[in-house]
Design goal:
This protein is an alpha+beta fold and 336 residues long. Helix content is 20%, strand content 35%. It has a single domain, classed as 60s Ribosomal Protein L30, Chain: A (2-Layer Sandwich). A hairpin with a 2-residue loop joins strand 17 and strand 18. This is Enamine deaminase RidA (YjgF/YER057c/UK114 family). InterPro entries: FkbO_Hyg5-like_N, RutC-like_sf.
C-alpha cells in the first residue's frame, strides 16, 4: 500500500516510530509531547469520550522519504506525496493598514505552502487542515473566520491557482488560543473535486457569509500510486447555504450524515475503486460544547454503521453550528 493511516490512543508509552511516517497530528493534551522526527500538527484541545488524554494519527508512505524545513514548514515527501505542517503566530506577521493580523498570517502561510509544493514537484494540493484561535470572534470589523478566508484567497490568487472548482478538500476549526496551524497533504497527481447537490459550493457562497467565500471543495478524490483516497471536508448541518436545526445538536448530526451520504454517492459516481460507504470511512467529529459529546456519539454511531469515530472539542466556522464531521478512506485500485 502506498498510503496508509494509523490511529492510536496514547495512555502511557507513545507509539513506536515505524520509520515511514509521512506526517500526522496529535490531538488532546499535547503540551508535554516530545518532538517527532516527522511533521506533526498539534491540535491542543479536549478529547471527548476517549480512553486516553492523547490521540495520534499518522499517514504512512512506502519507500524512502525526503524531509526538510522550509520557511517554517516541516515536511516529508515520498512516493509521489508530500505532507507538511506550518504554525505561525499572528503577532509575528507584519501587516499593512488594510490587513488584519489573521488575514496577513493566513496569506503568508499559504504563500509559503504553495512555494514548497512548486519546489518539491508535488503541485496538487489534496487536503488541508486549518486551525486558529477564537474563530468566531470579531476584530478589525470582521469575524476571524472571514479574515482567514480573505488571506487564504489572496494566496490562491497570487499563486495563480484556481479559486473555484479545482480546490482541495479542507476544514477550518477554532480553538481557544494558539497559532494559526495548517497541515496539508499534496501529491503529483491531480485531485478530483466533489460537490454536494444538496449544498451550494462553498466557493460560491453569497456575500452574507463574508467578503470572500471559502476556498475548498466539499470532498475530493486523490490518487496515490495504486490507490484512491476519499477526503470529505468538514461537513455540517447546512442545506443550500443556510444552517438548519439551530440549537438542536442531534438534528444537526442527522442532517450532517445526510450530507455525508450524498458526498459518498458523488464519490462512487466517479470512483475508480470499489464503492465507498459511510461504514468504511474514518470519522472525526468536532463538537462545540463538551456536554453534547454523549448525544453526538449516540446519534452518530448507528448512522455511521460502526465506523471509527473520534470526538474532539472545537469551535465550528459558524457560531450556530454545533458539530462538524470530516472523514476519509483509502482504497486500492490494483486488481484483487
Amino acid at each position: 500500500m502506498s498510503l496508509q493511516h494509523t490511529l492510536a490512543v496514547q495512555t502511557g508509552v507513545p507509539p513506536k516510530a515505524r520509520g515511514n511516517e509521512l506526517g500526522g497530528v496529535a490531538l488532546g493534551d499535547t503540551k508535554d509531547l516530545a518532538a517527532a522526527a516527522w511533521p506533526r500538527q498539534h491540535l491542543r484541545t479536549r478529547l471527548l469520550d476517549t480512553a486516553g488524554p492523547l490521540l495520534q494519527e499518522c499517514w504512512l508512505a512506502e519507500g524512502p522519504l525526503a524531509q526538510g524545513h522550509s520557511e517554517g514548514i516541516h515536511w516529508r515527501r515520498g512516493d509521489g506525496m508530500l505532507y507538511g505542517v506550518i504554525e505561525l503566530h499572528e503577532t509575528d506577521t507584519p501587516t499593512t493598514r488594510d490587513d488584519s493580523p489573521l488575514r496577513a498570517t493566513s496569506r503568508l502561510a499559504y504563500e509559503r505552502l504553495f512555494r514548497l509544493l512548486r519546489e518539491q514537484g508535488t503541485p496538487h494540493l489534496w487536503r488541508v487542515w486549518n486551525y486558529m484561535g477564537r474563530i468566531n470572534d470579531a476584530s478589525h470589523g470582521l469575524e476571524r473566520y472571514r479574515q482567514f478566508n480573505l488571506g487564504r484567497y489572496d494566496a490562491f490568487v497570487q499563486a495563480q491557482r484556481d479559486t473555484g472548482g479545482q480546490v482541495p478538500a479542507a476544514c477550518a476549526l477554532g480553538l481557544q488560543e494558539g497559532p494559526l496551524s495548517i497541515a496539508f497533504l499534496a501529491g503529483t497527481t491531480p485531485l478530483v473535486p466533489l460537490e454536494n447537490p444538496r449544498q451550494v459550493s462553498a466557493w460560491r457562497y453569497p456575500s452574507q457569509y463574508g467578503p470572500q467565500a471559502p476556498t475548498f471543495s466539499r470532498a475530493a478524490l486523490a490518487h496515490p500510486r495504486g490507490q484512491e483516497a476519499l477526503f470529505i471536508s468538514g461537513t455540517a448541518s447546512i442545506v443550500g447555504h443556510e444552517t438548519v436545526h439551530p440549537g438542536d445538536v442531534a438534528a444537526q448530526c442527522r442532517e450532517t450524515v445526510r450530507n455525508l451520504e450524498c458526498l459518498v454517492q458523488e464519490a462512487n459516481r466517479v470512483a475508480r475503486s470499489r464503492p465507498f460507504s459511510l461504514a468504511g470511512l474514518s470519522h472525526r467529529a468536532y463538537v462545540r460544547h463538551a456536554d453534547d459529546a454523549v448525544t453526538v456519539r449516540h446519534t452518530l454511531e448507528p448512522l455511521l454503521g460502526g465506523a471509527p469515530l473520534v470526538c474532539v472539542q472545537a469551535d465550528v466556522c459558524r457560531s450556530d453550528l454545533l458539530v462538524e464531521i470530516e472523514c476519509h478512506a483509502i482504497h486500492s485500485t490494483e486488481p484483487a
